[in-house]
Amino acid sequence: MKNVVILISGRGSNMEAIVRAQLQGVKIAAVISNRPDAGGLDFAAGHGIATAVVDHKGFASRDHFDAALAECVDGFAPDLVVLAGFMRVLTETFVRRYDGRLLNIHPSLLPSFPGLHTHARALEAGVRLHGATVHFVTAELDCGPIVVQAAVPVLAHDDEAALAARVLRQEHRIYPQAVQWFAQGRLQIDAGRVRVAGVNEAEAGWSVPPLDV
Ligand code: GRF
What we know:
Elements lengths: L1 E7 L4 H8 L5 E8 L6 H7 L4 E3 L8 H13 L5 E4 L8 H6 L4 E5 L11 H8 L3 E8 L9 E8 L6 H24 L3 E4 L2 E4 L9 E2 L6
Parallel strand pairs: 1-2, 1-4, 2-3, 4-5, 7-10
Antiparallel strand pairs: 5-6, 6-7, 8-9
This protein binds 5-O-phosphono-beta-D-ribofuranosylamine.
């Protein structure tokens, strides 16, 4: 059984998707938020999952906050730490501590559109395909080895909300899949690239929904 600790900052729909997936060999050991009002905390508590808050506002520096967060996370003995809409940039010290066992989901097809406002930027750029990426976290923001991506079409009438919703549906598919692969020990990082062991290479790690979504 792998202990998974999920970090959230808000509504926590990706966390919810991972919990609801009832992944084999996975125990959601805790859901931790940096915001006391994060909506996802209620869902987690309602599902019998331990919750904790480490409020970043209570710390004088990023280093102090990250040290307190790591102490909280380590209290749940995680095999894997999952960032699910966790809206704080983490220090290199924190990232190194969980090297190879820290995942993030980012709402774009990385390396396009790292950072914030990805859907607005995708619309502005006029790209025809957009999507989401699950990746291992490294010190550089939104830059680590890619585990799985899902692409969605960008349609002529899309606004930011419509595009975000289409991407989010895919996030809820690929994040549980990535966590399941990790728990099964199937993710191997080699020279900055991820191999998913034991699955058809043509199908592993990417996903395109039908174009009439
Ligand atoms: C998701 O779009 C995720 O990719 C991004 O922030 C959003 C969080 O949504 N990092 P939720 O809290 O999981 O509902």
